C-alpha cells in the first residue's frame, strides 16, 4: 500500500477539549435542530469529533495521523525543509534577493543524522552538514513565519526554491 503524501493543513482541537466553546453535544432525541447545528461545527475525525472553531495550527496531516497528536508542519520528518544556510541572514531592506538555503530532511537539519557522529557516537567536530542536505537558492520573498522558504518567487525576480 503506498504511503500518503506529507501535506500540511489545519489541525483542530477535539470538541471535548477546553478550546471548544460550544459545550456538550446536544441530545438528538431532545433537540434535533440544536444537535444538527452543533454537529455541523464538529465533524467526526479519526480521534472523535473536532471543533472547526478551535484550530490548533498548521500541521503535517500524515505525521499527525501517525503520532496520534498534532505534529506542526515545521516539524514534519518526511519532507524536505528549506532553511537558511548557517550564518545567512537576508538583508531586510531588499525584497527579492537570493538566499542560500540548505534543503533536506528534518532530522538532518536538526543534526540528528548518523552522518554527524563517529561510530563511537561522538559528534564530528566541524561537520557543517550531512550528505542528505543540498544547497539551493531561494528568494527572500518566500520566507515563511517559521523561518523556512518555499515555492517560487512571487515576482519572478528571485530564484526558485
What would the average pLDDT be, to the nearest integer? 85
Characterize the biggest β-sheet. 3 strands, antiparallel
Question: Would you list the SSEs in sequence order as H and E?
Answer: EHEEHEEHE
How big is the Rg?
A: 21 Å
Number of strands: 6
Given the structure, what is the number of helices?
Answer: 3
In the predicted model, the low-confidence regions spanning at least 5 consecutive residues are: none
Instruction: Write down the oligomeric state.
Output: single chain
Shape: elongated
Fraction of helical residues: 10-25%
Strand composition percent:
25-35%
Structural class: alpha+beta
- N→C terminal distance: 31 Å
Spatial strand arrangement across the major sheet: 1-3-2
Question: How would you portray this structure in words?
Answer:
This protein is of the alpha+beta class. It has 3 helices and 6 strands; from the N terminus they run βαββαββαβ. The protein has helices at residues 32-41, 61-67, 106-109; strands at residues 8-14, 44-45, 48-60, 80-84, 98-105, 134-139. The strands form 2 sheets. A 3-stranded antiparallel sheet has the order 1-3-2. The protein has a 3-stranded antiparallel sheet with strand order 4-5-6. A hairpin with a 2-residue loop joins strand 2 and strand 3 (48-60). The longest helix has 10 residues, at 32-41. The radius of gyration is 21 Å and the shape is elongated. The chain starts with 7 loop residues before the first strand and ends in a 22-residue tail after the last strand. The relative contact order is 0.14.
